[in-house]
Amino acid sequence: MSAQVPSDAELLQAQADLWRHSLLYLTPMALRCAVELGIPKAIYNLGGGATAAELITALSLPPSKLPFLRRLLQLLAASGVFTADDATYRINAVSYLLLDGVPGDDRHIDHTAFVLTATSARYMDAAMDLAGWFKKDVAASPFEALNGATLFHESMESLDADFHGAAKAALEAHDNLGIEIAMREFRDLFEGIESTTYICGYGDDKFARVLVKAFPHIRCTVLAYPNMIDAATKKAAGGVINYVEGDMFSSIPPSQTVVLKLILHHWPDEDCVKILSQCRKAIPPRKDGGKVLIGDIVIDYSDSKTMLETHLLMDVGMMTMTKGRQRDENEWRQIFMKAGFSDYKILKKFGARGVFETINNPGKSSTNLFADKSHTTLHNRSTSYHGAPTTMSAEANTLPVPSDAELLQAQADLWRHSLCYLTPMALRCAVELGIPTAIYNLGGGATAAELITALSLPSSKLPFLRRLLRLLAASGVFTADATTYRINAVSYLLVDGVADDDRHINHKAFVLTATSTRYMDAAMGLAGWFKKDVAAPAFEDVHGATLLHESMESLDADFHGAAKAALEAHDNLGIEIAMREFRDLFEGIESMTYCCGAYGDDKFARVLVKAFPHVRCTVLAYPNMIDAATKQAAGGVINYVEGDMFSFIPPSQTVVLKLILHHWTDEDCVKILSECRKAIPPRKDGGKVLIGDIVIDYSDSKTMLETYLLIDVGMMTMTKGRQRDENEWRQIFMKAGFSDYKILKKFGARAVPSDAELLQAQADLWRHSLSYLTAMSLRCAVEMGIPTAIYNLGGAATPAELITALSLPSSKLPFLRRLLRLLAASGVFTADDDAATTTTYRISPVSYLLVDGNAIGGGDARHINHASLVLTAASARSVDAAMGLAGWFRKDAAAPPFDELHGATAIVAAFPHIRCTVLAYPNMIDAATIQAAGGVINYVEGDLLSFIPPAQTVMLKLVLHHWTDEDCVKILSQCRKAIPPRKDGGKVIIGDIVIDYSGSKAMLETHLLMDIGMMTMTRGRQRDENEWRKIFMEAGFSDYKILRKFGARGVFE
């Protein structure tokens, strides 16, 4: 075997990494909890900052929940959902998006629905079944395979109307944030457009309405599926938009420009080519100004690790939910070329998205990459804005309004927070499929194609497996070079059987338990738990049984056994390393009592007496925990005593508590330590207590801090225990009667001796496995109204203020603090501390998007409440789909067509000179909408696959990412037909996601989370620039450009 064996340091770090990977879902779960509790709103209402105690009061939470709330807030703060200073948690850009309305900021859109949908049970269930899906040769996405209905389709509406509505609201928040900003950023572009066709997607014509208002000279056509645009919507447009019903795969109304805003990432490559081919037909030659503008995700591998991870999370999400995907520039390029475009350009990065521009030119071959047939340009979302308000106009609220750049970045951050549970789901899928062992058996490195063969997976799953692996590589589970994925220290811990390495412990049970439905259900119930004044943890409250207790064994023996195996792997890695690291310490010990805890695992004692036979060792265990076979195997060198450490600990020179105290409350820890103190001799006679446990260190790396806080929120959810920082440990020691202590050595994620890197790897694995708790915490915050509460409190609030504002039980204050600190760490809020050790949480651009629109008022036209996006992304249906990814991978079936429809209405408001037509499916635009447009928008019923009304410009705003590549080509081909030649200004403007692997880690993660979400729910996908390019070329465009990055999106022309 040529796979390199990790060193002690690497192995311990790997365990820490594995913890982080497995527990990363706790970040979205904590986010969900905060949303459900209304924490952002409460902090806002408390002036933008609040302590956990204040939130307990404001939210009317039970006072008993205060310590738990603190832990929740701490994790959220560490994750960047809030900011924190000392004990005060504040609204930052992320939590700003979770406020229920922000007066004076028309850009604000409440993203609560997005968080709750992204962290829903339906999403989670689909993700949990990924491995099964990979093994089945089925076309349906994991979401469809599990739910028997397609995301956003009428079949889903019939199955679960509430989820369907929330999902649509989530999509609207996702797609519409930044439209007003785009009007300013691309003023020169729009002023040069005479006509445009906007591909409506899901019946939302806001982009078109804003366009024609801002540029009234533009003749705007909206192409929508039949019945997607109702009469009211058409009437509201005032006749300035031409609404055409049709199918972008069949025909796109001609115009100078076709716009695809967040459309193509919903479709596979083949469909994208079809769409782009139609776009190419719809626009005039390049010399007449014909172009296609595409706003979509572009994966950039050179982006920051956070942005890259975001992009890849989105991609895996799309893989789980839809047939769509996120693409890098090369993948975009291939699509463009296949669609007949010879060139393209990325105009600008726009947040997490890029903007492509395609410009039509006649007389050249549509198959020549550099043929002068058509041109595409990617526009990327801007990082600055002009003309937006700088402060909110709400009475008594001086919370600064995020800039355009902050708001767009906040949306990308919110996507990542809501979708990062897909990382542990992808990890679970890899474990269930046996990918680590397969790579190891192939010499330590393998391509996706080799894994398909080795694992006997359907060949049709190859492109999906590549997407899964690139997310796991970006997250650090594997390493990658070119197309080969290799075992690293983290995945080494997931290999079945490693010869000649007695340190190795397989952590599969930990990953599968940490990402199980029972854990997920408990995490998703956090908001309800916060509102109840009950002592039991959320896990026990939901299941009626205690984790690792005989009550759980009676309820679910299989889960109980897996949970015990997970705990053994968690606790025992590194014991042999500790014997070497602390040889001098153990050689000086004459007698020792090892407290076995509640699980009957005596491995530490057995290894100790083997390494140091001079030590007289006693093991204290609960009655019947140690069986006769175990005692006999010890060979008589260990004295086993049955008892209860709360009542009596056998006397010895040293008492050892290894990973015991973090399972207990502070009061119980004091009782245990008091018994330890009685059991040992005075200091002068060598009496001591050795404690191996987690020590939260706020000065540690962001990754390690996030791991600590994820574990803490996980323990808060599952048990009565907690993780502690050094000051909290000190208080316990002093209360137990000890006068002094010292930290001997950091031991990976623990403050005990060992190889740091191996333990760091374990911490990373925890984070990856529990990261869904970030999305669940975000959902919780949205459901509770926390962004709006903080906003209403002036943009900053302490947890105590939020308790009051949200009418939460005061007992939940400590828990609210914990929820907020995680969201702040994730960037949803910002947090700052004062001298009184009270953390204030503030609205960030992200949480600004979650503020209720009623709170914001009409002062910020850019604002769109994204609460529905959060709630949909974290919804039960979304979770169910994500948890079903493994099963979906096993099926070789293609997902059904994705029939979601996007819309546009903002253009006409910003540019009244533009003659705007909105194309929508029949009955999608109601009469009220048409009336509200005031006659300035022409509403056309139709199908963008079949026909797009002619215009100088066709606009596709967040449309193409919902379609397969083939459908995208069809749509773009219709766009091309609809627009005049380039010389006459014909163009297609596409606002959509562009995965950028060179971008920030957070943005890439957002993009990839969205893609996995789309994979789970729909047939669409996120794409990088190369994937966009391929679609454009196949649709007949010869060129494009990315005009600008626009938040998490790009804008193509």
UniProtKB/TrEMBL annotation:
Pfam families: Dimerisation, Methyltransf_2
GO molecular function (one): O-methyltransferase activity
O-methyltransferase dimerisation domain ranges (all copies): 19-99, 415-495, 766-851
GO biological process: methylation
Record keywords: Methyltransferase, S-adenosyl-L-methionine, Transferase
Keyword Phosphoprotein: no
Superkingdom of source: Eukaryota
Span of domain O-methyltransferase C-terminal: 129-342, 526-739, 904-1038
Listed name of the protein: O-methyltransferase
